[in-house]
Structure formats: C-alpha cells, structure tokens
What we know:
Elements: H1 2-22, H2 33-60, H3 79-82, H4 87-108, H5 116-141, H6 158-161, H7 169-181
Helix pairs in contact: 2-4, 2-5, 4-5
Signal peptide: 1-24
Keywords: Signal
Amino acid sequence: MRQRQHTFVSVVSLMTVLCSLSQGCPTEAGPTCAEELPNAISIISRLKKCLRDLYKTLVDDGYGGRELRGPVCLLRNNGIVAQPTDLGTIDTRLCQYTKCFQHYAGIIRPIGRLRPNIHRQTEYCQKYLNQLENTVKKMKLLPTAPCSADSCRISWTFTDQWDELTKGTRLAQELLEYLEHLKFSCS
Length: 187
C-alpha cells in the first residue's frame, strides 16, 4: 500500500511538472507585478520626501519661495497620491516626480557652486528616481499572476472611468489628478 501511494504521488508530481512546462511556466514561478507594488510604494515615499526636503533647502538658502514649486511640484498629501495602488498611478507619479526634479534642476543649474547639502539631496532624489523608473519598467514586464501570460498593464484610464465619476469622491479625485497630469507631457 505504501509503495502504491508513493508511486501515485510521484506520478502526480511528474504530471504537474509536465503540465507546467507545456504551459511555459517554470515549477517555481517568479515574482508578479503585485509583489513589486510594496517596493514601488516605498520608493515613492522616499522620493516624495526627498523632493520636499530639496524644496525646503532651496527656499531656506534663498533660491525662491512658494513660486519655486510650480504646478508640477505640488506633492499633495491625499491618499491617492500617497498610496498608489496600481501600475497606472505609479507610472503617473514617476512622470510627475521626474518633471518636478527637472524643474528643480533647472533652478539649481545656474547657481554654479552648490552647497554640499543641496548637492547631496539632489543625488538622493536622482537615485530614487532611477530606482522608481527601473521598478516601473520591471513591473510592466512581470506577469499579473504566477504563470500568467498577461503582463501588468496600466489599468486606470480616464475614458474607462467617465461614467463612474458620480459614484464616489475617489473617482472624482482621480479625475482631478488626471486633469492636473495633462498640464505636462509624460512621454
């Protein structure tokens, strides 16, 4: 009886492996898009703080006031901006933060010799931007589920949600963000 049970388990294991291979799926599937989400959210949190610190340092050092931010650097603290939950929102944040960093870089460049703290903060922001860009690229290539042939897609679009806008404040907020997002190109 024990031999027969062992043989049955072996046959089931072999069939599972063969089935996985025939579907092009390794027996130990790699990471999925959702598994990278916490990493992306963590990087966004550090990047947002870095950009705020850079802004404060520039203001403290006399390189401008509230106008220094410009519309592209309004990093508000609402839940959608603070906690993106899908690749589309993360991709939008990457674009917004890149444009914001470029805006600050345009202010910093003519200064010439930078104080060490501005130079260091600029390097940190650039590092976080690179990490987020690499994470987004990786997420776009990862499957949505183990052994899935579908890769992650940008899931939120303005036209898909238009008829849903009256159903709640979250969607209205997303519409506002989308319209703000149109102020600058993200290509």
